[in-house]
Amino acid sequence: MKASHLHLAYGTKIIYDDCNFHFEAGDKVGVIGVNGAGKTTLFRIILGEQQLDDGEINLPELRLGYLPQEIIIPPEHADITVWDYIASGRPVDDLQNELNQEYEKLAKYPDSTAILDRITKLQDLIDSYDLANFDYELLKILDKMNLGALSDRKMSELSGGQKSKVAFARVLFENAGLLLLDEPTNHLDVETKAFVMNYLRHYPGTVLVISHDIEFLDAITTKTLFVNKTTHKMKVYEGNYSNFRREYAAEKAAEDARITEQEREIKRLSEFVARARAAKRSNTALIGMGHQREKVLEKKLAQLETREREYAKVALNISPAKLSGRTPLEVQNLSFAYPDGPLLYDHLSFSLDRGEKFLIVGENGVGKSTLLKLIVGDLQPLAGSIIFSKHTTIAYYAQELEILDERRTILENVHSYDFTDTELRSALSNFLFYGDDVDKKVAVLSPGEKARVALCKILLQRANLIILDEPTNHFDPDTQKIIGENLKDYPGTIIMVSHNPAFVEQIGITRILIIPSRQPANVAESLDAQQPSKPKLTKSGDASRLPIIKNYSHELLEYYYYLNSDLI
Questions:
Q1: Using CA atoms, how far apart are residues 347 and 349, in angstroms rounded to an integer?
Q2: Residue ranges of the domains in the chain?
């Protein structure tokens, strides 16, 4: 793949300015840059969905596999099974039917080179799908991504996290020559992520992956493409993300030292020229030297490099408008199941103390997001109670950003009677939305931009109980760090679902609710046979239940699916 002299702008907003890069077959490339730098746009150009203003990207003739950030299952696939949906990634039956039609044409026109060429291409494509190992490869991916129990379920019955995993499995099964993965780890549990990292490391094709997950990038990438939002340039670095950070930091330090020396020389020359201009006419030697230095100064000014502007970062200021009671939330004997589905919880009970940082973990589909929706009242339990203290106020950040109205502008989405428009615009500027940006419809924003709007909206509510469903999805590492630092010092109570161990550890989780997997080996088993085990609570510092170990939250997240271990 080779890109030459890429230029792209939206009106006066420049995205790419004379960008070039080159990748070899089999490269594993991390595509990085801040939100809005043009990473997803690059994928859209490769896919033919976006036109450049100038320049070109030359691709070899190969199949493309694409995993977008926002997974949308087409209506025609809503009622097919998970097995059939993943299998459709290799459309062998359709290709075989097309091949048969070409042979029928060939019988009528035996001398047609166009038909013969088409037959050859179709046969090569079918062969590339490795029919001999079709079922084996599909079963392996289902098993390693913990999707086996879902194979007979309809796509419409899956949770958001499950749909994301299934879509990812389908892309891997396609066996494409070039994979384009946009934030692929957003909805992956730790076990599945480990499998995917190993799978991609050994993937025979080329992989381009946009990700803010440093662990993931370090594990699989051999090159890094940095899309620089401030300079509108791209540069390829050898090695993974951590190697990029070291090289980029060294480049920045060298650049800073070089420009500092240039500025020092310019200042020295400027002072000499000023003295020469102020000298008496009789001092011809000094005046002559001044003219010489002035020419040198002009040349130095023309050559002076411009320091790369540091791109603004999200700024947060979290403080509840009022304190909650000592027990802001109590869950009593909660039971819930979706229609025709298994029980997700059976008599689940727990209460929160004011100021707790409470983490919920479990594999995709066990009901983590569902529990949050029950707490905020979007769903109703089959039995049990959810009780809030008198002064509890809630702000809910949903995994799929349901709190946003895509038909409205950014400013309209964060509207609050407690703030003037000026105050709202100031708050939005802390989330990198300036001037006319606030008048954009949410529908046209990137997932990262939507996430910033949603986070701004919930923080403006100044609630004392914040409920967060995968809050770090779509955010770059610097933004994740800023969010984590602020939530660590947040005086209210937090309930959070997250698969990001580093973020969890930064916040300082006090207790963890582990929801065990209860999916049967045979999804057709009756509800009576599906007796869910009780979710388990662990508490930091309780030596009888949880050893006090360094980085305990990280270790628990990697270990939670071993539910019968001595750790719990």
A1: 6
A2: 1-62+177-311
Handedness of CA 337, 338, 339, 341 (dihedral sign): negative
Spatial contact of 242 and 218, defined as CB atoms under 8 Å apart? yes
Alpha helices in 205-283 (DSSP H): 214-220, 241-278
3-state helix, strand, coil in the chain (%, to 5): 40, 20, 40
Higher pLDDT, 363 or 202: 202
- What is the tens place of the pLDDT at every residue in 473-528? 777 777 777 778 778 888 899 999 987 777 888 888 888 888 876 543 332 232 23
Where do runs of H (alpha helix) occur along 279-338?
284-303
Tell me the two tokens of residue 263: 């500025």
Q: What CA dihedral angle connects 155, 157, 159 and 160, to 10 degrees?
A: 40
pLDDT digits 0-9 by tens, 446-458 = 777 888 888 888 8
Nearest to 244 by CA among 272, 289, 282, 211: 211
How many CB atoms neighbour CB 277 within 10 A? Answer: 12
Q: Give the count of alpha carbons within 13 A of 90, CB side only.
A: 23
Q: Which of 130-144, 291-305, 443-457, 508-522 has the lowest mean pLDDT?
A: 508-522
Asked if residue 442 lies in contact with residue 410, where contact means CB atoms within 8 angstroms, the answer is yes
Q: Residue 230: which region, alpha, beta or left (left: phi > 0; alpha: psi -120 to 50)?
A: alpha
The string of DSSP codes covering 481-512 is HHHHHHHHT-SSEEEEE---HHHHHHHT--EE
Residues 196, 228, 9: CA angle, nearest 5 degrees: 110
- Measuring CA to CA, which residue among 503, 437, 444 is closest to residue 40? 444
Largest CA-CA distance found in the chain, in angstroms, rounded: 109
Residue 33 CA to residue 16 CA, distance in Å, equals 13
Pair 335, 345: CB distance under 8 Å: yes
Number of C-beta neighbours around residue 532 at 10 A: 20
| CA distances for 435 relative to 284, 421, 551, angstroms | 55, 12, 42
Q: Look up the pTM and report it.
A: 0.68
Choose the most confident range, by mean pLDDT, from 10-24, 414-428, 438-452, 500-514: 10-24
Q: Which of 339, 330, 341, 348 is nearest to 533 (CA)?
A: 348
Cα 331-333-339 angle, rounded to 5 deg: 100
Contact yes or no for 415/443 (Cβ under 8 A): no
Supply φ then ψ for residue 564, to 5 degrees.
-100, 10
Pick the CATH number of 1-62+177-311 from 3.40.50.300, 1.10.443.10, 3.40.640.10, 1.20.810.10: 3.40.50.300
End-to-end CA distance of the chain: 49
Q: pLDDT tens digits, residue range 227-252?
A: 998 889 999 999 999 999 999 999 98
For residues 394 and 467, the answer to whether their CB atoms sit within 8 Å is: yes
- 260 to 249, 265, 310, 344, 558: CA distances (angstroms): 16, 9, 17, 62, 46
